[in-house]
Amino acid sequence: MLYALDPPMDELWRRLEFRNASLPPHTFPITREELELWSTWFERPTLDEHPIFIQ
To answer: Does residue 12 contact residue 31 with C-beta atoms inside 8 Å?
Structure first.
């Protein structure tokens, strides 16, 4: 089973702010601009695909 989660952008950013505040070694911060760009690359499931992901 594959689950597709699609939280609102503000929630994603809230979580990234928390992550960015205490980065482990050898990691990099993610900016709001990067998050917004990368979110456009995500293909959300279509209505026809919802039965595969949502039960």
So the answer is: no
Contact 11, 35 (CB under 8 A): no
For 21-47, how does the pLDDT look when each residue is reduced to its tens digit (9 = 90+)? 999 999 999 999 999 999 999 888 887
The one-character DSSP state at 31 is -
Measured from the Cβ of residue 19, the count of other Cβ atoms closer than 10 Å reads 13
Place of tokens 């990099």: 28
Write down the residue that tokens 């690359």 correspond to: 41
CA distance 7 to 11: 6
Q: Which residues contact 13 (CB under 8 A, 6 or more apart)?
A: 32, 35
Per DSSP, the three-state class of 15 is helix
